[in-house]
């Protein structure tokens, strides 16, 4: 017994330090495990935030809102010291001359979006006329819209300043890749002239002005350029053009000296000398037509520029972009441009619009599964005057659902006009927004920047800046919100269109 006791006490004595060591090693082991788990978690977090950077824009909410002052430091740099370059500003932005007129208030977003629907109707009716070869389509649209709205505004959003006549008169014109003829309001304003910032062009004070005769080829080109047949006034050629919002210009189709820059002067430029101008065009003197028809500015200056021009719309109205004619002689910048061929789709190929083939959309780095036929049914165009990109409803539904899924941590709020996916960011300083890319034929990926993805002027209602067409048979439109900061290269002779990121601030 005693012996046994001894053994057991010996055993206890022996076991005790053993169990102590066991406990100690267990503790050490769990500490090790814990620190490993911590490190794992940390690297996981790092991995995830890297992943987030890859698939999302992480940004301050305020960076989505427009600024109220013009950042003039960008005015010089935006010109890139290119010779044939004009400055591009938003018509309502603080960098615009037109903005100085305090009486003209910046329109509310809802009004801008309502106006945008009119722009889309204008595009559809031009395309319908094009394919039907008649003008019986949508003639009532303008009247309907006028009845609903009561006021007319005028197409387009971005303004450039050019010189017209001798001595030259500086005129701020809305630049428009979706129409062809260039026009300005002209004295004596036989019908009507709306208020404009600059004094109205007076052809009688210019030594280089001349009428175009009714039976000239130029005058006969008006039908394809405007969708309206020509008219005559004492054998002088009369043009008329109306836009979808019932804004319009009618007057004498004339020739004049056009001065783009000191080195780029064109004699005998055919333009509309508007005697009856309906709309407000935000106080701009008229419109600069950059379409594909043979009366557009690129066509009339083809001998010098070979229908090559590029532009960049700034990320904010407080910044300036550019419109450059001719191949950029500067080095480097054009290397990063990725080209997609102009669409050969029926109805787009011969229109004055720049047709593109969309091939896909990605959200958060993942390509949406949308059947190719959704995009090829009606095709797409790129337009400087449409604000919000319009997609076939099938494509928009896929985009919206993927976007909403990745934004599920944020509270949604009311729709804003045509925009149905809006968030209230009032309680957030920083947000992460899934990256969106649009793909065009030729595997050209166009990455949309944050202010091109969301549309807002208040943090409590920030909306996905895409909208659906009524049906998949309507043309898709790549709009100007999504084009912000892209250098968009129009190579008319090469029948292709190029994109490069970071073209302007
Ligand atoms: C003006 O724009 C430039 C380029 O985007 C930027 O670096 C600078 O901070 C801006 N200045 C002001 C006063 O906003
Ligand atoms: C434009 O094209 C029409 C035919 O499509 C032609 O009659 C006219 O001469 C052309 N005008 C110019 C300025 O090239
Ligand atoms: C141009 O035509 C209009 C209308 O026929 C006429 O009143 C005007 O005098 C003409 N101007 C010139 C410079 O020929």
TrEMBL record:
**Which terms does the UniProt entry file under GO BP?**
proteolysis
Instruction: Identify which residues the record assigns to the active site.
Output: 176, 383
Pfam families, alphabetized: TAXi_C, TAXi_N
Tell me its family.
Belongs to the peptidase A1 family.
What name appears for this protein in its UniProt entry? Aspartyl protease family protein At5g10770-like
Q: Where is the Peptidase A1 domain?
A: 158-500
Keywords, A to Z, come to: Aspartyl protease, Disulfide bond, Hydrolase, Protease, Signal
Report whether Signal shows up as a keyword of the record.
Answer: yes
GO MF annotations, alphabetized: aspartic-type endopeptidase activity
The record's annotation in InterPro entries points to: Aspartic_peptidase_A1 (IPR001461), CND41-like (IPR033873), PEPTIDASE_A1 (IPR033121), Peptidase_aspartic_dom_sf (IPR021109), TAXi_C (IPR032799), TAXi_N (IPR032861)
Q: Report the source organism.
A: Herrania umbratica
